[in-house]
Amino acid sequence: MAKIGINIATGSLQQSEMIVGIDLGTTNSLVAIIHPETKLPTALKEFDGSSIVPSVVHFDSFGNVEVGEQAKPFLESDPQNTIFSAKRLMGKSHQDIRAHQDFFAYKIIDDNRDSLVKVQVGSTFYSPIDLSSYILAELKKRAEHILKTPVTKAVITVPAYFNDTQRQATRDAGKLAGLDVLRIINEPTAASLAYGLGMDPSEEKTIAVYDLGGGTFDISILKISNGLFEVLSTNGDTYLGGDDLDRAIIQYWMKQMGLDDLEDHKLLKQQLRLAAEKAKIVLSTQEFFETEFAGEKISITRQIFETLIEPIVQNTMDCCARAMKDAGLQIADINTVLMVGGSTRVPLVKKSVATFFNQEVNDSVNPDEVVALGAAVQADILAGNNQSMLLLDITPLSLGIETMGGLMDVLLPRNAKIPTQAARQYTTQKDAQTGINIAVYQGERDLVKDNRPLGAFTLKGIPSMPAGLPKVEVRFLINADGILQVSAKELRSGVSQTVDIKPQYGLTDEEVEQRLLDSLTNAKADISMRALVEARTEGEQMLSVTEKFMMKNAALLTKDEISLTASAMQALQLAITMEDKHLIQAKTEELNDISRPFAERVMDQAISGALKGKGIEDKDLQ
């Protein structure tokens, strides 16, 4: 028999365990539930009526963390220690974000390699998973404060274009925040659910979801059929959003006032930004906005505002055209256009979208809350409260393979619908390695030793190549009978092998529950251990690459360069033997900083020699 609790704040009855829906946004995040009395999706609001938590994290000099509204002022006053847009870094490598490095005011570690990005605050290193977990922990705390009940289970939304690595990173962030993430769902799918689309199994529709958030824009074309959501295409710009509309107003006012730059006047800059944001909101319902700034009146009309933002809105229309082309559809094929994101309230945006799709847009649900509301609908379905939608059979525990350092790399997360499949690419760790061992595990812990082994095989016959060159694709496929087929294929040579495993059987419901409980209880320790193992692996790779480089190019280096590098290598080697992730990362970064300049010099000399008619020798450069 389920326990019933009473919400002290509202006096209403509630379930002892509630699954929440979370919109983890680039600019803002929020939590929603299905209200126990009205049975309608509802965004959780504090007493001030606000449902939104800004996705901003600030670290003070003592290591204290502030999240949300409290952290926002530090964007201007302490930018190097205030992290925004962490979602843009999820599952990304340094190479992925190189072109947008200037966008971030804080320090992103750049080591010229494909390892996942890290953010440095003081002497501490944070992954995007750590940063997102702070936001999710704040949302969890907020939900528990409002509901007066523990919150441990959630459905979290992600953009439709997120890849498997980014989805897994989002799951890990939830786990670190103390949440059992039952399902990751696409934001456009969540928006559709909030509008009640896809609830009728007989419904067949093709819809467009236009999502203009604070810092990102995306357009998704979805096909809904038999309660299933298929993303036909997605397009957008991860560096375009409502902030750009504000910036257009700021630049207009600065020109009016004859101001060139406010970089040295942080407070004035913040005031002008807030005034511009207010102007955008007011001009959505009125024709004129006026306020006072630095002792003089500033104003703007809706007509001028629309002229200023027309190129930005046109950019989003170009994205819509590309999405339609990719989906292979005509405008007439779109049954409904849904609006998501606060900036879709701007009349020009609404009018442009309606004109493009040749129909009135559907914006009847609060655009700030729609994604979280849809996540709450999905959470309600998973809780078994909504019987009208059919839940397909799912995997009870995550499935993955063992990677360097005994880590569990999840390919199919628990609660994945079946039949399903997922693939990921791996490579060799040693030169001339001709075999790679694929060990398959089931469970939620970060180290494979804590999970259940299901089987293993070795992919043999990989052509002898330098470490990192072979591309081995490992594919998991679960058929409708719940049988897991694992295949591995070296993509350059075509060498492949397949094995069938039955992962669904042999564990009782109690054992499954125990494993889930263990994963939550040990989440913090597990993820700390994973971070330590990853730092050690990265450090060892850095040592290996540097050692090879030094052996090949010693004649081109000065005595001081050789001595400095040897000293830095020794310091890193010592750090690897310790249990301090941040120390290992710091020493890896120091070695990288020392070796990068002369590695680049050697490469320049080699290229210069080639241009004079000489061949480039095959150097192992960083």
- Could you tell me the CATH topology label of the largest domain: Nucleotidyltransferase, domain 5
Tally of discrete structural domains: 4
CA-based gyration radius? 26 Å
Report the span from N to C terminus.
Answer: 62 Å
Query: Structural class of the helices, strands and pairings?
Result: alpha+beta
> How many helices does DSSP assign?
14
Shape: globular
Amount of beta strand: 15-25%
Mean pLDDT: 84
Helix content: 25-40%
Report the strand count.
28
Could you list the spans in which at least 5 consecutive residues all have pLDDT below 50?
Answer: 1-15, 613-622
The biggest beta sheet is recorded as: 6 strands, mixed
In CATH, the homologous superfamily of the largest domain goes by the name ATPase, nucleotide binding domain
Return the CATH architecture of the largest domain. 2-Layer Sandwich
